[in-house]
Each structure stands twice: as C-alpha cells, then as structure tokens.
Amino acid sequence: MTDMSSRAASIRRTGEPFSIAYMDCDNFKLVNDRFGHIQGDALLCGLVETIQENARPSDTVARLGGDEFAILLPQADSAHAGEIAKRLQQKIQLLMNGNNWPATVSLGVATFRKPPVSPEEALSACDALMYQAKGAGKGKVVLGVIEGTAA
Q: Cys bridge to 104: 26, 42, 110, 144, which one at CB 3.0-4.6 A?
C-alpha cells in the first residue's frame, strides 16, 4: 500500500477532486460478544480482504483503528465514489451474511473539490458523514461534497 501522506501530497499538487470513504463496522462488538474474538478477528480479516479485492490499483486503504477503515479514492468524483462505496458495501454484506455475522457497514464518503487544509479536516468531514449513515439506520452510505480550502 502507498503511504497515505505521500498520496495526499500528490493530490494537493494536481488539484484534482478526490474522495475518501470512511467505513465503520456496525455491531462489531456484538459479533465479538456472541461468537468470540476469533470470529471478530475473522470478520476484520474478511473486511480487509474484501476491501482490497474491490479497491482500484490507485486507491489507498488504511485501518484507522478497531473496526474503522478509510479508503482514499483519487480522481473519483461524488458519483463514481458513491458507486464504489455501494458496490463495496454490497460485497461486504455478502461476507457478513455468508458467515451469519449480525453486522453491516456504514460509510461516509466525502468528495473534495479542493484539498482540505489537513488530513484531520478531511477525516473529520468523512467521520461526520459516516455518523449520518449510522443515524439513518446503519448499513447505509451517505455522500457529501466538500468544497475545501486549499492551504
């Protein structure tokens, strides 16, 4: 995987729009509590494998901690990023259903027309969209376009 900060620097230089998908596994704790930590670990490994299998070569995947992941989608406008996120969510749901795990994923996908001032600002915008997805009933994708402010 490419270093996310070097990828962000490249995006800042080109000035092209890009998107970031912020994903959280809904009910992950329930899987750990009901089926044990071995199954929780298997779920996380399955998530990573599914994300990597469905990511484009230009995408960068990062685990943010626990059951949260970010995917940097260079040159993906809102429509394209939305398609990617919805397709990924469907593939992950097949994984969950196939293992009888009572879990879904919520995704907040932000498209930036200009690079944000900092990575923290970018993740904060994506995190807010992800919480909107959870608030809408979990297992949803919420898209947003952020104008951003180039530094």
A: 26
